[in-house]
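User: I've been trying to design a sequence by hand for this structure and keep getting stuck. Would you show me what you'd pick, starting by listing the structure so we're on the same page?

Assistant: Good idea, let's start from the same input. This is the structure you sent:
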């Protein structure tokens, strides 16, 4: 078992030599002086043209190094009281499967706040580009570790290191939806990224590959106007999300072992599924170019990365209407949160179907997006 204990990394973690007020005012000091655990991917993961199949999902007793590191750090912060509540207890979270064919999942959590993730007025600002910085700039215990590309064949864990360029910061979410809930924030050594790009999506997909735990899901929500930094979310779900159990109709297949693009059939929100056992880089490039086109057309979308990085679901919503909100990625996947006991008790499959279908892109728009997928995928097929 590749277990990582908090003791192995905590002695040298979260050391900061630059005064907090200087780091918050100046972009170049946002990360300078902070030393945290650094996980390097194996070099095989980042080869542009080499196939990378990853590993089959393995039993929990054969936990990967990255999976062990994330959970050890997350549970350490849980016991230290960094989280606002313990999401693993029944006193905080009540789960139920909504009756019906779809098996939608409902969670009652009166402590959860949808407006918290992220809440701009609680963030400090770096002067460059009005860039919100997560609260760990004040409370470093929320910053767990970072991941980056490596130069050796095996993954490597460094107990204390400066944040390198093109890294992913792993930051705990104080108000978790599920076990292990974290933010994944792509960044350079002195700045945060603002736009979804292929490398960032590839990197977070690599996180899923190397965590190698089928319960681990990654989420991305199309940013609202004015959002000035890029981040993903991730947590562990004990059961498959309803969308993952829904049949698909494959309309593009690149050879026997290439990428597949499918439409999820008979699902209330228009959804595409991208699958690849090899070349995660190519799949990320295709998905990001599609998302860029969607954003240019003001079409809201969400991403769900599942199956140890082999699958990316793309949820397509209609343009935002007045006094309405776009749904989150986990809502699109069939997982709903309620703060009110009465709403939780009254949740029905019919109501959830209506909630999803009300925001879905229409049939005509979906056909246009499918054609766009084929056109973009064809550019990368060579």
């Amino acid at each position: 078992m590749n277990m990582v204990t908090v003791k192995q990394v905590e002695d040298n973690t979260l050391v900061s030599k630059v005064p907090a007020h200087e780091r918050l005012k100046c972009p170049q000091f946002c990360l300078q002086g902070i030393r945290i655990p650094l996980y390097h991917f194996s070099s095989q993961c980042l080869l542009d043209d080499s196939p990378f199949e990853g590993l089959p999902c393995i039993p929990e007793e054969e936990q990967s190094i990255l999976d062990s590191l994330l959970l050890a750090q997350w549970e350490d912060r849980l016991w230290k009281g960094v989280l606002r509540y313990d999401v693993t207890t029944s006193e905080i979270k009540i789960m139920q499967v909504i009756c019906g064919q779809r098996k939608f999942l409902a969670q009652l959590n009166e402590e959860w706040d949808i407006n918290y993730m992220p809440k701009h007025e609680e963030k400090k600002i770096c002067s460059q580009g009005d860039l919100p910085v997560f609260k760990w700039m004040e409370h470093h215990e929320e910053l767990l570790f970072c991941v980056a590309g490596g130069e050796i064949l095996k993954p490597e864990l460094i107990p204390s290191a400066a944040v390198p360029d093109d890294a992913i910061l792993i930051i705990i979410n104080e108000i978790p939806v599920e076990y292990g809930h974290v933010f994944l924030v792509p960044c350079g050594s002195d700045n945060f990224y603002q736009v979804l790009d292929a490398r960032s999506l590839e990197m977070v997909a690599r996180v899923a590959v190397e965590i190698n735990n089928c319960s681990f899901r990654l989420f991305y929500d199309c940013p609202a106007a004015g959002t000035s930094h890029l981040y993903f979310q991730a947590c562990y779900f004990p059961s498959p999300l309803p969308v993952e159990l829904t049949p698909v109709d494959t309309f593009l297949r690149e050879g026997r072992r290439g990428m597949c693009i499918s439409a999820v059939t008979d699902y209330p929100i228009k959804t595409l599924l991208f699958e690849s056992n090899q070349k995660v880089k190519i799949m990320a490039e295709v998905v990001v170019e599609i998302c860029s086109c969607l954003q240019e057309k003001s079409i809201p979308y969400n991403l769900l990365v599942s199956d140890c990085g082999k699958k990316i679901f793309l949820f397509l919503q209609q343009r935002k209407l007045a006094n309405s909100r776009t749904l989150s990625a986990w809502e699109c996947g069939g997982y709903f949160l309620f703060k009110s006991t009465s709403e939780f008790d009254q949740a029905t499959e019919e109501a959830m179907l209506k909630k999803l279908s009300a925001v879905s892109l229409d049939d005509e728009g979906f056909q246009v997006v499918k054609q766009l997928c084929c056109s973009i995928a064809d550019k990368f097929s060579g």
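That's my pick for every position. To get oriented when you compare it with your attempt: The chain has a mean pLDDT of 82. The longest strand covers residues 156-162.
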